[in-house]
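Sat 14:20. Reprocessing the chain from the morning session after the first attempt stalled halfway. Input below, unchanged.
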Amino acid sequence: MTRADLTEKLLDLKREKSWTWKYICEQIGGMSPIMVTGAILGQQKMTKSMAAAAAKLFGLSKSEQTLLNEVPMRGTGTPMPPTDPLIYRFYELVLVNGPAWKALIEEEFGDGIMSAIDFDMVMERLPDPKGDRVKITMSGKFLPFKYYGATGNAMAYGLKEE
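Finished this time. Tokens:
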């Protein structure tokens, strides 16, 4: 069985049982609902205990449980640029705002990146009489670039210079 096959099986069971993502995430636990949902969709790795909980919930075989614990090939299945309108809006946010985010992060932190590995994200629904709003908060560790071969007084890392 491939990871894509397992994802389809899990989605079929979700539909068949009329489960919500909230229910599934509560039953599996262990991580953010975004991470658990991503794991069901084949984009994240579950810990062994999470994979066991998912296997129990979905009635999976031992090999299917093991597959949930393997590191996936992340990013597969989404064409670039994305064609789904909701996913495209995130792509558009990066295209339009990315240069400003980069400039502001570099001014505040120095020469480096915001980690997508040491990272946290929270999604909230904000009621609004004009239409509810989606609030997404992202927090990633700042990782300064390493200036390899730096000698003497040259900085070894791209931290903000005071």
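Residues 45 and 70 are 6 Å apart (CA to CA).
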